[in-house]
């Protein structure tokens, strides 16, 4: 066997389960993803292995070189000082894999909880904007790296972004409405380091990209409308994730396509006419007289109310963010543009002023 000892189960899903195990060769804890023996899950597992091998092939050692220049104002020694150091790449590292009794078993580095778990631990309260900035930059670095290799993750969400460290720190929550000293605190990650996981749904740019991708809350409008998709669908998902980190709650909490689209319009404005004119097939039912069929097409009064209570994006962010508000709103508006051709690319987003602070 690969592992001397199974420590505990750390995750479970439709794909199978994840076990924390002791690797006797490396003398470290690892996470082993044991995939169900059904063909569709085996295929996804082999895609994940191939993607991670390709990422590793183009990123030797799993580290990047970071260069920071012009720090003279901090040191007053030279006119310009250039620092170089290596930082871990922001995707999970593949250790090994094997096929055991028709179950693909993938061995990963052992990581901490997901951003979803961290938000739950934090009682769905917002992260400080500086933590959002650090996490967002790392996710974007991973997306940019994948896009350079013609890869599209397609399933970015808080559950698929893990903290490297499981440690938390207790900090005062000055915005809390609670008066009790025992509850007037946030539990925040001690380290901002993250890794993107779950590459089993990764697609390549040259494939036929018309099928449904992404988990509902993070699904781009072009996917819902059946207009085809590409790299920008990852950018939309990232925008939704950053809003969730800023506010503590998912931006679009829905399970219906029409309601989802109506929520997008409530938060971001009207879907462009040229996108609605391209619709055919099942998506045509979402449009009437050149506009979204809402509220007349709503499934219930509760659905209309759920849409109506949503604020504009800028108002939502201003309710939760104390500083860098203008920068983060401007960034999110670039990530969450309806037309995928107008959305920021990963590299453009990394150059945004929000990440220069």
From TrEMBL:
Matches recorded under InterPro entries: CLK_kinases (IPR051175), Kinase-like_dom_sf (IPR011009), Prot_kinase_dom (IPR000719), Protein_kinase_ATP_BS (IPR017441), Ser/Thr_kinase_AS (IPR008271)
GO cellular component term of the entry, any: nucleus
Keywords recorded for this protein, A-Z: ATP-binding, Kinase, Nucleotide-binding, Serine/threonine-protein kinase, Transferase
Listed Gene3D superfamilies: Phosphorylase Kinase, domain 1, Transferase(Phosphotransferase) domain 1
Catalytic activity: L-threonyl-[protein] + ATP = O-phospho-L-threonyl-[protein] + ADP + H(+); L-seryl-[protein] + ATP = O-phospho-L-seryl-[protein] + ADP + H(+); L-tyrosyl-[protein] + ATP = O-phospho-L-tyrosyl-[protein] + ADP + H(+)
Source species, domain of life: Eukaryota
Positions contributing to ATP binding: 33
Domain called Protein kinase: residue spans: 4-355
Enzyme Commission designation: 2.7.12.1
GO molecular function: ATP binding; protein serine/threonine kinase activity; protein serine/threonine/tyrosine kinase activity
A UniProt-annotated Pfam family: Pkinase
Protein family (similarity comment): Belongs to the protein kinase superfamily. CMGC Ser/Thr protein kinase family. Lammer subfamily.
The protein's name in its UniProt record: dual-specificity kinase
Species assigned in the record: Lupinus albus
